[in-house]
Structures are given as structure tokens and as C-alpha cells.
Amino acid sequence: MSLTIALDRPDALDGPDVLDGSDRPAATPRRNTETRAFLNWLACWLVLPNLPFLPITLMGGPPRYPEVVLCGLAGLIARRLNYAGRAGLFLALMAYLVISFIARMFNMAVTMILSVIGLVFDMNPQASIEYVAGAALLLLILGTGLWLLRQPSDFRRPRWLFAAVGATLLLTGGDYAISKDAMGSYARTDPHGAPFSSASSQAGFAALADGKTNLLLIVVEAMGEPRDPALRARLDAFWMRPELAGRYEMIHGTTPYFGSTTSGEIRELCGHWGNYDRIRAPQPDCLPALLARQGYRTTSYHAFEPEFFDRSRWYPLIGFQRMVFGQELLDHGAGLCPNVFPGACDRSVPGFIRRQLETAKQPQFIYWLTLNSHLPIVENKALGTEHCEGLGAKFDGDFPMICRLFSIWGHTADALVKEIGRPDFPPTDILIVGDHMPPFTQQRSRLQFDAERVPWILLRHRAAKAGTPGG
């Protein structure tokens, strides 16, 4: 009876162990309860929240150690809340972890992801087995977490608190060690006063406007600068074809990049670092606006939705007089290319550009942002990525996503060269540039590309350079 009374008193819970007749002390009910509570806490707040990202982390994905710390802190706060409080905090934490992971993968701010989350239904994530597997794992973890959160996790002994902090720090250090080699290629969203440079400025693209020659600027989705010389030579060969040498002078170089695709657009079109969310009023110094004042008709082409990243709002503010998006291209005969971002096929766009230039009554500035090389690229016959080969045994076998990426670029380049190589193609200076490095989830693939620079190629029309009319 005295033992029962002692155990019922809170101050007795931290007392000496009770002997069970053997040489070992028997575990007290409090010790068992504390152990179970800690293990449940560990599962709910460290293991489960980080489990969906573990496969990519092991492949050397984006650094997540700040998020790991956040998980531990959230768990320590939640352990004394009621079930509703724990479940609400768990769901909010998981939502933030997913959004921040996507943002870091694609060099975007979390606010940018939130601004386009309503357009998720225009995407086709089920086209990617990686996305399907990730979504299934995430749903399983959410269900498991909400079930486990019904169990107590309010440990009180100092040693369990130290164990929780230690486990958090151990997982944090492991994530840092795995991701540190590719860390510089993630979260490149703020130049912090870096000197400005762009392909447009290096090539003197705006100065090529003579009132007679057309200008075509192409920003190629995910076209990064390969580290391997053979891969770089292959990339140059896509755009700098021998059959174009008689009509175009070919120059190439590299330029720094920061951020995601829209940051690359602002870099090349407006001549400064930044992003589209800062554009709230007309921008007279952006390239389309400058050329419009010089008598050029300014047109943009993009094969996806006009609302994606708010392009239908800010494109006119930087000077585009006409915008052509995916549905209009499809309505006028462009092919449909299935992918996670389904839209009109990039290989259809050069034909539209040629027809526009042929019928124009004034000089044209055309801007084309490609779509189909947006990662992840699925293996698909319609995309021309089925059974990908062509980069050699090393890259075809070890880096299938790189092979698919080069395949998309090759198809796009083939379609462009077919049009601009025609004898009757109107005189046009053409600048081709990447927006950012390809944001591969696998570190080995990511490290095949420069983490700071993207390539550009200028095709300068020889007749325009000589100041003579015609082609």
C-alpha cells in the first residue's frame, strides 16, 4: 500500500528504481512512459517530417539543415499541446517543408511558390514517376503522423530533453555533410551587390537595333553551362551549325545568373538583378520598351499559361505589345508536348516566328521563353526523350535526365535552325541564352553544370552586320 501511494505522488516519479526481486532494478512506470513519449516525439517531429525528402537528400539534394532545426523546435513546442494543437502544428510544418524544398530546388523564394500555387491544376505532376512516388510517400507520412500524434509525447526528464536536442543536431549535421558539395548551386536568389552582367549586355544586343534588322532573343529553360568540355561542345553544336556559317557570325560566352527563370528574364530583358514581383509600373528602360520607342514591334512567345508567374501582368509593363501563350499556339496548330508542365511544343514555335517576320511591316523584336526543358523531364515518345541516347555511354547510362535535357535542347535547336537557315528568312540577329543551371535533384547530375554561370550564343546576321539589305 505504501508503495502504491508513493507512486501516485508526482514527487515520487523521479525517485529510486523499484526492485523486482532480481539483481536489476525494475523500470518504473514513469520511466516506461517517458521512454515511449520520447520515441513517439522522435518519430513525429524528426523522422516523419524529414522522411519524404530523405531519398533526394541521400542523392545530394538541396541543404535542409535549417528545416531540420525547425522540426526539432516545433516538436519541443508541440509536446505539451493538446491533440488539436499538435496536429495543426504538424500539418503547418509539413506544408512549409514541402514549399521551402521546392523553392530551394528551383532557386525561388517561398513567396514566389505561394503566388502560383493556384495554378497547380495546370500542371501534370502525375507524368513524373518521381512526383507520384513523392506524393504517395507524403500522404502516407501525413496519415501516420496524425495517428502517432494521438499518443503522448510530453517527456519531462532533462535527459530526454538533451536527447531530443542531440538527435536534432545529429540529423542537422548529417544533412549538412551530405549537401555541402552542391550547396552553392541552391538558393542563389540574392546577389548582394554583385556586379551586373548579362548575355544581352555582353553581346551589345540593344545596340544591334538599326531599324531594319529584326532581333530575336531566346531564353532556353534550364540551359546551364556544362563543366565537361565534351558536353559544352555538344551544346554549342546544337546552335552553331556549319550550315549557318554563311549567313551568321557566331559568338559565344557565359554570364552569371541568380535565381530562377523569371530572374533570368529580368536579367536579359531589363538589365538588372531582381525578379518580376518588383515590377509594379511601366519600365521604360527594359529592352522591349526601348525597342518599341525605336519603332520595333515587340512580341513575346511562351508555350505555357499566361498567369504562370504573372507574366500576363508584367510583360506589358516592360514593353511587350503582343503576347502569345500556349493556348493560342495550340489553337493555331502547334503540337502538344506532355510533361510535368504540359504545353505547346517548343519545336513548333520557330515556324510561328518565321511567319511573323515574313509578314511584318516594321522591324520586329521577338522574345521567346522555351518551356519543354523544364525539369523534371519525363521519358516520353512525344517529347522525343524515350530510350534517350546520344551523349555517349557515360552520360546516357549514368545521367539519363541529362540525356533527356540535351535531347529537348537538340529538338528545339533543330526546329530553329530549320527556319533561320532558310535563304528567305528575314535578316535577324539572334541571341540564345540559358536562364539558370538545370535544377537536378541528384547531386552527381547537378555537379555536371556550373553553379554560377549560364551559356549564351549570338548569331549575328552577316548582311545586317555589313549594313547591306537582304539575306
TrEMBL record:
Transmembrane stretches, start-end: 38-58, 64-81, 93-121, 127-148, 160-178
Stored PANTHER family: LIPOTEICHOIC ACID SYNTHASE, PHOSPHOGLYCEROL TRANSFERASE I
Keywords: Cell membrane, Membrane, Transmembrane, Transmembrane helix
Claim: tRNA-binding is one of the keywords in the record: no
Cellular compartments annotated: Cell membrane
Residue ranges occupied by any Sulfatase N-terminal domain in the UniProt entry: 266-376
Record membrane topology: Multi-pass membrane protein
Protein's UniProt name: Sulfatase-like hydrolase/transferase
InterPro entries linked to this entry: Alkaline_phosphatase_core_sf, OpgB/LTA_synthase_biosynth, Sulfatase_N
Keyword Transmembrane: yes
Superkingdom of origin organism: Bacteria
Species lineage: Bacteria, Pseudomonadati, Pseudomonadota, Alphaproteobacteria, Sphingomonadales
Species assigned in the record: Novosphingobium album
